[in-house]
Design goal:
It catalyses: L-cysteine + L-glutamate + ATP = gamma-L-glutamyl-L-cysteine + ADP + phosphate + H(+). The protein has one domain: Creatine Kinase, Chain A, domain 2, CATH 3.30.590.20. Helix content is 38%, strand content 15%. Strand 5 and strand 6 form a beta hairpin.
């Protein structure tokens, strides 16, 4: 998700956004117009009917602007294009790669990536690869998307900078181009999907079906991961095939700015996990968690996941993250359009040509970039920072998560207040919150109260930060204000429905959270 901070839309250049794809435009508008927008973006049939005209989506209107300015949402998938190198890489090259993400505040953007489960409307079963291929081919033919192929298999679509990609179990990830709308991309998907009897579910964990019911996508990268996961954790396959997330990506201006935002985001990630908790069901019944998706990450692969305590060290910076990443076991190297299994080997060994899979070969910056995408902490550093703690959810909450993080991290006053707030939180407390919120959410005890009380202060800082940006952005937090005030998470509301009018069935969730 990219935002042109204090710049009119027509002054936002694509060259400034080359690191991002994915687009949704968001605004805070009058209540009755909001209702009209929600009807347009939430109804499965309404979205399909509206596909022939360009969706206006949601956008941020700017105070004092006659036409308004837009918050353009973009995400940043890794590239597989070759990066030519003429000399062996050094550690300094890897540090410089991360540091090259530094940019002045006027060029900061906001990225978001979001995933959803495809299912057969008639049976609620997950759609298989053949159905996915039919859907992708239909979208390509009708709306002029380019197919992304792996061998003979279509595994995604691209149209300019926007893309539709597949997660391991066939979860769809939509990301539109800068200056485009994610709503339009979604509408095009739905126009074809409706004809094929396919719907999409916005939730954090597959609520009904077992692992054996989930299709496996024909992607070499995922085949390597699938074989490796049982060696390093008990829930890796659940992560791959049964989870969906919403992710927010934010920029930084310097190494100091990066580390300040990194610390604030890591410490507060459990609050985001709780506020957006939306995965209480597994295989048709309550699973004992409010965020099963978040719990799954605690036993997927702790060599590459977690809360990164070293970020809070006084010496932390780009170099320390490089040192960490060099020792995270690799998954693969991509050569000649094929994935080569390098599981368990280190990028540090690769740097000196000691990978048994490709002996004597040295890495490119593209290898480094791809390796960084296989590291999965709660906040991830690339050439921007990725907030990874939230469950997938419905359209109506799509803009709440980026608004939350923008208000906290893109406003200097709010950021400093957060850093002051978390300054004496211990590593043990941060880890406790990471683990407990998956079960008890905002009701998690913390010091002399509940996490909800901290979340109230944090939400106030986020709103204040948005207000100081002089946009009408704070309204996006309305979707989570009641959650924080009451301490009742989206997952708990789903559980109430399950035990009440749904009659202990999860089937109605496919309609409740239908995109």
């Amino acid at each position: 998700m990219a935002i042109a901070s204090r710049l009119p839309l027509n002054r936002v250049h694509r060259s400034e956004m080359l690191n991002y794809t994915g687009g949704v435009e968001c605004d805070v508008i009058s209540k009755d117009r909001q209702l009209r927008v929600r009807r347009n973006v939430m109804g499965f049939r309404n979205m399909a009917r509206n596909v022939e005209r360009r969706s206006q989506g949601l956008r941020f209107d700017v105070v004092g602007s006659r036409r308004g300015q837009r918050m353009v949402v973009a995400a940043s998938p890794p590239t597989e294009d070759a990066v030519v190198t003429t000399e062996p890489l050094t550690k300094e090259d890897l540090v410089r790669y991360l540091a090259s993400g530094c940019k002045p505040k006027e060029k900061w953007r906001i990225g978001t990536e979001h995933e959803k489960f495809g299912f057969e409307v008639a049976t609620l079963r997950p759609i298989n690869y053949e159905q996915i291929a039919d859907l992708l081919n239909g979208i390509s033919e009708r709306f002029d998307w380019d197919k992304v192929m792996e061998g003979d298999y279509v595994i995604g679509l691209k149209q300019g900078k926007q893309s539709i990609s597949l997660e391991p179990g066939g979860q769809f990830e939509l990301s539109g181009a800068p200056l485009e709308t994610l709503h339009q991309t979604c509408a095009e998907v739905k126009a074809v999907a409706e004809e094929l009897g396919i719907g999409f579910l916005g939730i954090g964990f597959q609520p009904k079906w077992e692992l054996k019911d989930i299709p496996i996508m024909p992607k070499g990268r995922y085949d390597i991961m699938r074989k490796y996961m049982p060696k390093v954790g008990s829930l890796g396959h659940d992560m791959m095939f049964r989870t969906c997330t919403v992710q927010v990506n934010l920029d930084f201006s310097s190494e100091l700015d990066m580390i300040r935002k990194f610390r604030a985001a890591l410490a507060l990630q459990p609050i985001a996990t709780a506020v957006f908790a939306n995965s209480p069901f597994t295989e048709g019944k309550p699973n004992g968690y409010l965020s099963m998706r978040s719990h799954v990450w605690t036993d997927t692969d702790n060599n590459r996941a977690g809360m990164l305590p070293f970020v809070f060290d006084d010496s932390s910076g780009f170099e320390q993250y490089v040192e960490y990443a060099l020792d995270v076991p690799m998954y693969f190297v991509y050569r000649n359009k094929k994935y080569i299994d390098c599981t368990g080997m280190s990028f540090r060994d690769f740097m000196v040509g000691k990978l048994p899979s490709i002996p004597g070969e040295l890495p490119t910056l593209n290898d480094w970039e791809n390796h960084l995408t296989t590291i999965f902490p709660e906040v991830r550093l690339k050439r921007y920072l990725e907030m990874r703690g939230a469950d997938g959810g419905p359209w109506r909450r799509l803009c709440a998560l980026p608004a939350f993080w923008v208000g906290l991290l893109y406003d200097e006053v709010s950021l400093q207040n957060v850093l002051d707030m978390i300054a004496d939180w211990t590593e043990e407390e941060r880890q406790m919150l990471r683990e407990k919120v998956t079960i008890t959410g905002l009701k998690t005890p913390f010091r002399d109260g509940l996490l909800r009380h901290v979340a109230e202060d944090v939400l106030k800082l986020a709103k204040d930060g948005l207000e100081r940006r002089c946009y009408k952005e704070a309204g996006f937090l309305n979707e989570v204000t009641e959650v924080v005030r009451t301490g009742v998470t989206p997952a708990e509301k789903l559980l109430e429905l399950y035990h009440g009018k749904w009659g202990c069935s999860v089937d109605p969730v496919f309609e409740e959270l239908l995109y």
